[in-house]
Write a structure and sequence with these properties.
Layout lengths: L8 H12 L4 H8 L7 H10 L15 E10 L2 E9 L6 E7 L4 H15 L4 E3 L4 H9 L3 E3 L2 H18 L2 H4 L10 H21 L1
Parallel strand pairs: 1-4, 4-5
Antiparallel strand pairs: 1-2, 2-3
Helix pairs in contact: 1-2, 2-3, 4-5
Protein name: DDE domain-containing protein
InterPro entries: DDE_dom (IPR032874), RNaseH-like_sf (IPR012337)
Pfam families: DDE_Tnp_IS240
């Protein structure tokens, strides 16, 4: 999982588990050190070095895409985070970031989604950028049911809870940053989240 790391992989994974469960880096290192002594810098380095695989087509039958977007603060600017999940197993199917939110960005996001997972109905919160994007891509579109709304809102809140302190640990001072470090962090988050969901299921 992480090359050139003398720490046994099971402790690396547990350290990441503690962090993504909501603990700070220091609190995570304190818990981990009860079994294997490592400081918070070690966990920070594991997050930096971790290279999760790209999202692949789901082997399970996909009923539909539940899609939503939310705003995140990175450095001195705000970006849009786009998320698609599958309602049955709640795994994240695709995640993307953009500096704008409009029909063209939504169309590009959904287009990349169906390239990996195929065409399926799309459920959204009624944002005006979705219906035209779905129409252009010939995707069935409907507004969230109460269950779909509950599932996506819980997922989005979980993501936002873990990104609130993003700049505390991953500060970016590069002018006109391409946000590569943000994408790497989010790929790690998705990889961890989906593996945890698989384990629970």
């Amino acid at each position: 999982m992480i090359s050139r790391n003398r720490t046994p992989s099971r402790y690396v994974y547990y350290g990441l588990h503690l962090y993504f469960s909501g603990l700070s880096l220091r609190k995570a290192s304190e818990r981990l050190s009860q079994m294997y002594k490592r400081n918070h810098v070690s966990i920070w380095n594991w997050i930096q070095k971790y290279r999760p695989q790209k999202l692949k087509a789901s082997r399970r039958r996909i009923l539909e895409y539940i899609v939503d977007e939310t705003m995140l603060k990175v450095g001195s600017e705000y970006i849009w985070l786009w998320v698609a999940i599958e309602p049955a197993n709640r795994q994240i199917l695709a995640l993307s970031i953009s500096k704008e939110r409009n029909m063209f960005v939504a169309e590009r996001y959904l287009s990349n989604l169906i390239k990996v997972h195929g065409k399926h109905p799309v459920s959204t919160d009624g944002g005006t950028w979705y219906p035209m994007a779905c129409q252009f891509l010939k995707l069935d579109h409907h507004i969230h049911s109460s269950y779909e709304k509950s599932v996506i809102e819980r997922t989005m809140q979980y993501i936002k809870d873990r990104t609130e302190s993003f700049d505390d640990y991953f500060p970016c001072r590069i002018k006109n940053c391409k946000l590569k470090h943000v994408r790497n962090w989010l790929r790690l988050f998705v990889d961890y989240h989906n593996n945890e969901i698989k384990h629970v299921n």
